[in-house]
Amino acid sequence: MRVVGLTGGIGSGKTAVSDHFERLGITVVDADLASRQVVEPGQPALAAIAEHFGQDILQADGTLDRAELRARIFADESERHWLEALLHPRIGEALRAGLAAATSPYAILVSPLLFEAGQATLVDRVLLVDAPEALQLERTMARDQNSEAQVQAIIKAQASRAERQARADDILVNDGTLADLLAKVEALHERYLALAAGEAAPA
Ligand code: ATP
User: What spacing in Å lies between the alpha carbon of 16 and ligand 1's midpoint?
Assistant: First the structure.
């Protein structure tokens, strides 16, 4: 086992978990970060987006106007497909390069869209961070100052908990304190080290 895919819904605790794996010395490759990097000024994907949608998809400083792009692809599904066909292969390439450069016994690929963006092919095992919806709502609202309706809409648009649970090899239930969560991460880390070393993992 070399790569663990870490996923979960909004506010489930992915960042808290991946930060802790990083503290334990594990290379973490972040799909959110990669998806922002591939559309930075100077990247071919940004030029392709500007050519397709027009120059007003860019802000005055030449960076992508994300709000405008979101509005365009929300209004037209074929535009969303066009954008995904452009970006997913480039994001996949960046993730592959990051994982290939990992120096730890195993690596973590953290992605909210592990299944939706075809990134599950990059991982050997799937770890789901799972929290009851009420806690996802409460924690995201506290973090982002979003309204309950905004967070509910995002949760509805994402894969359901049941869909994610069905595809996970391991599930970290994040319904206690942060300290509880980090202890569970440490236990999993031991198990993953054993798996990476090719030993049988305790059940
Ligand atoms: P997103 O998909 O929105 O990026 P995420 O899955 O990365 O979210 P985090 O940012 O790790 O989620 O967690 C959401 C918020 O909840 C953060 O402010 C985090 O500190 C807090 N949090 C996570 N787990 C717990 C916990 N067990 N107890 C209390 N707060 C928690």
Answer: 6
User: What is the 2 CA–ligand 1 centroid distance (Å)?
Assistant: 26
Ligand 1, closest atom to CA 8? 6
Which pLDDT value is given to residue 187?
A: 97
| Residue recorded with tokens 């030449």 | 62
Cβ-contact 15, 136 below 8 angstroms: no
- Protein residue with its CA nearest to atom 21 in ligand 1: 139
Which residue's C-alpha comes closest to atom 23 of ligand 1? 13
What does residue 3 show for φ and ψ, rounded to 5 degrees? Answer: -125, 130
The dihedral sign for the CA sequence 13, 17, 23, 25: negative
What is the predicted pLDDT for the residue at 155?
86
Residue pair 184/17 in contact (Cβ under 8 Å)? The answer is no
Euclidean distance between CA atoms 5 and 127, whole angstroms: 6
Closest residue to atom 26 of ligand 1, CA basis = 178
Contacts of 116 (CB under 8 A, 6+ apart): 159
Which of the residues in the chain have pLDDT under 50? 200
